[in-house]
Amino acid sequence: MEIVFRLRHTIFMKNENQKSPWGPKEKEQWFKEQKIQRSYQDEVVSKILQLKDRYDVSTYGALSINPEKYPLFLIRSRNFNPAKKTVLITGGVHGYETSGVHGALLFISEHASQYEATYNFVCAPCLSPWGYETINRWNHQTIDPNRNFYPDSPAEECRLFLKAMEPYQIFAHFDLHETPDTDNTIFRPALEQRDAIVIPFSPIPDGFYTVGSTHKPELEFQKAVIESVRKVTHISPADDKGELLGTPIESEGIILYDMKKLFLCGGFSEAEFMTTTEVYPDSPTVTDEICNRAQVAAIVGGLNYILKRS
């Protein structure tokens, strides 16, 4: 087998049993096989609209697949003050990462007001609403949004978000994710077929961890996030090589990626503080509520650290 590229320190090999990657026909067939499994309007939009009495709620576009069904929302501090630093919270970059969406909304609903004397908040709670409804990592064109945050991106979700972020100078960014078992049972096999590659199996870390940027790791900030989350749920242990997902840990529950090189959401800005959270929702020791609360604790821990350092 021939090595074709490397991502997240995982070696992807050419699959000699599959002659070529998917073309338009195969991608269309995949799209037709996807089913609506939950309601973005009922589960997400309804919660966003409940915040209109306290926050400025607006749309920054809609997905072209169904604009009426999939509007894209920003929640912004009322009386936004350019003199204050701006904190960005993003969720649902991958639509199937449920606690990212609901953790973002829970923080805005219950905790953001405690920090608004110091910071402006901008929250994009669900960047991929079609993915939310179909419980998918990809968008409807078989594109992973979280590898495509760059100008003229092929992912509509990324293009619309980046355009919406142009007016803002981001000081801190919390990008909320989770890694379910379907990463290995559904997504990995589909990715192998789409790209005609073989991806070695990698077990999903059981617990919470953060991914910082190699450009601005801010390890003490990452540690503050971990310590805050520890009060809610367990932290992912390193494997016997001292790694998580093939990446050496910097400290307990903390690894670093080159966010900009990989075109991840966490690398799109020049934020002084940035963390991508990861929760394992299929752990036998957690519930949906614990996962949501872990996301909230991550933001609270990070903000408290920044405030103390100021």
Fill in the keyword field for this structure.
three-stranded antiparallel sheet, disordered N terminus, single chain, 310 residues, 13 strands, Aminopeptidase, globular, alpha/beta, eight-stranded mixed sheet
Structural account:
This protein has 310 residues and is of the alpha/beta class. The chain has one domain: Aminopeptidase (3-Layer(aba) Sandwich). The chain is 31% helix and 22% strand. The chain contains eight helices and 13 strands. It is globular. The N and C termini lie far apart (53 Å). Residues 1-15 have low confidence and may be disordered.
Topology (SSEs and partners):
Elements: E1 3-7, E2 10-14, H1 24-33, H2 40-49, E3 55-62, E4 71-77, E5 85-91, H3 98-110, E6 119-124, H4 129-134, H5 156-165, E7 170-178, H6 182-195, E8 197-198, E9 209-213, H7 219-230, E10 243-244, E11 247-248, E12 254-257, E13 273-279, H8 288-309
Parallel strand pairs: 5-6, 5-7, 7-13, 9-12
Antiparallel strand pairs: 1-2, 2-8, 3-4, 4-6, 9-13, 10-11
Assembly type: single chain
Shape by Cα distribution:
globular
Radius of gyration: 19 Å
CATH topology: Aminopeptidase
Strand content: 15-25%
Q: Distance N terminus to C terminus? A: 53 Å
In short:
The chain is an alpha/beta fold and 310 residues long. Helix content is 31%, strand content 22%. The protein has a single domain (18-207, 264-309), classed as Aminopeptidase, CATH 3.40.630.
